[in-house]
Amino acid sequence: MQNSILEYQPGKALSTFVECYWEGYFALNLPEGESLQLIPNGYVEIIIHLNDLHCNLHGGAQWSQSPDYLILGLLTRPYEVRFSGTVSVFAIRFKPEGIYNIFGIPASIFKDGYEDIGMVLGSHFRSFCHRLREEKNAAGMVSIAESYLVTSLRRNRPDFNYLNLAAEMIRCKQEVKVKELSNRVAISQRQLEREFKKKLGVSPKHYLRIMRLNEVQRLLKERPFDLTSIAYHCGYTDQAHFIRDFKKIIGERPTIFLKGHKQYLINTGTSK
Length: 272
Known about the structure:
By secondary structure, this protein is α+β, with helices and mostly antiparallel strands. It has helices at about 95-105, 115-120, 125-135, 140-155, 160-170, 180-185, 190-200, 205-220, 225-235, 240-250, 255-260; strands at about 1-10, 20-25, 35-40, 45-50, 55-60, 60-65, 70, 80, 85-95, 115, 265. The strands form two sheets. It has a six-stranded antiparallel β-sheet with strand order 1-2-9-4-7-10.
């Protein structure tokens, strides 16, 4: 597998809602019938293909070529992907609650799957994507994306509230407790859980697990043989708890995952 990913930070007006922009290519030629597993990272991605060669995604009972412009929802388990050549993309990585703030659409409806975002958002979004595809320079694509998203944000009149605060606390401090979250944002635990399920599609506790293991994955890139200390650093004081969460989110026990890491696509996002 050969791939290259370069990340670009959003401007101040969007940093509350957008994690980053990224451009990349994935040059893979998998044998017929083989797929890779995309690991959950706790974000929602809008992916714009820059050439005519796309990846193949598994939806329902069959494989199909991904649309020109797709939204990949918040994943709670590994997601199968196939490549048959070089795929070039520009993508916007959203904080999952940020999708609602910018477009008025809850991330929950895309959970563990994908949709043709050009069909969801309509002709104005497709025109934006056409302009992106005509711009060959990364800085130019980021500028076009910034302008489009700021306009969408203003049109939607975002309501920045306790959900945004709680989700950001989880991303910045993976060992935080759900009860502590509700106290910090001055809302009942039940109401916080209800809003997470409604807008993100998962509970605060489940989102906490995903982000904690995303940080584990990020650190494993730097220290692949230091699993125990990484787990402890990410808030796991109980090894059995760590293994249980890892298997539930990643799909394998940590030691088996490390031996077969080439079967996975890992895009952890920026570090905090």
